[in-house]
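If your schedule permits, I should be very grateful for your opinion on a structural question. I have a record of one protein: its chain in single-letter code and its fold written as discrete structure tokens. Would you kindly read the sequence against the tokens and tell me how you understand this chain to fold? Thank you for your consideration; the sequence and its tokens are set out here.


***
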Amino acid sequence: MKIKLLLSALLGMAAWSFSSTAAADWDTGACPQPHTGPAPCIETVVNGNTYHFNGSGDHADEWHGLPGGGAFDFQNTGVDLDCPGIGVSCDLTLSGEVKKCEDSNGNWRIGVRVTGADVTGSFLCDALSISGFPWYSADPANHSHPNECPFVDDCDNFLPYNPTASNYVGHFGEVTVSSLLGTHVAAEHLHGVTFTANNMGATPTANFNFAGKTFFSCDGEEDCSIDGILYLDNAAELNIY
């Protein structure tokens, strides 16, 4: 049987509340258009209000969740986890934050970290424990087997900024999943996770694509797999220009 994992998610990604303190982490209004580099501009739309941060001043190299506090939530039903001896399909929510930063060579990169998860559904789903937070995105060019880990908060490890891209593909870890039956995923990571931004209000909404992805240990051994796409749930848009 497959358990549907509802990823409460990537990039907290829970409902957006609006406190003046948290909203101060973002500037009011949309990213200037046309966007002129070299720094990325990150934009979100929440409850009809648009916010952005452009990488200048205090905004660079700082993690940003919702303008009103909390994290961005990405979620879906029917996310499948298959491991030796266990297969489940659950509702999964991943919560997280995003930032922009300059690496040691002065190039801009995009960082994503997952700060929490919630999984519900059947009895087996409720018995799953997801941990290892925070999980970080990583540039595949900087992470290769063997000894691909660790996944850390280091701008040199994050995803290279591309001003013409509508999506970003990277590795993601380190993830631990356990249940009463034992530990199924032990500080492992995924390859080729795709984040698609919701630029200009496109449909479907911004999402993280985990479809058909395999978990790898740090030395490259494979065991479990996950299949599902998590959609931004507590904001209308999350754009990168």
The first strand starts at residue 3 and ends at 4. The chain has a mean pLDDT of 86.
